[in-house]
Amino acid sequence: MGFEKLLVIGLLAMFLLGPERLPEYAARLGRFVRAARRMLDDANSRMREELGEDFDLDEWRKLDPRQYDPRRIIRDALLEPVEDEQEPDADPEPEADPEPPRAPARAVATGETVFDSEAT
């Protein structure tokens, strides 16, 4: 919140509560803020205790979904060099000839199991 908003809230509180009750409510607000800050500090220290010395708040900030920018991710992926690319001048290695498929009659003669992928 900016200073202007706090000023407007303060003026509204002064008019609605009046000068008699305003100090009491300001003291309550101060106690509430201190209690909330203390609870947050306790939760932070407990989290650091349970996660150990390897806990790094900066690493958690990197996982914040509000930092997700699909345009940046796509741009980085498109500009990233591909490691498996071969140079265009390089001759590709000739592929080994695959084993020729066995005929069913030959498979029956040798006792092999015949599987027909089109039969199912």
Compact description:
This protein is an all-alpha fold and 120 residues long. It is built from 4 helices and no strands.
What this model shows, in words?
This protein is mainly α and about 120 residues long. It has helices at about 5-50, 55-60, 70-80, 105-110. It has a domain at about 5-80. The radius of gyration is 36 Å and the shape is elongated. The two termini are about 70 Å apart.
Topology readout:
Elements (H helix, E strand, L loop, with lengths): L2 H49 L5 H6 L7 H10 L24 H7 L10
Helix content: 55-70%
The computed structural class is mainly alpha
Q: What low-confidence regions span 5 or more consecutive residues with pLDDT below 50?
A: none
Order of H and E elements: HHHH
Number of strands: 0
Key terms for this structure?
4 helices, elongated, mainly alpha, 120 residues
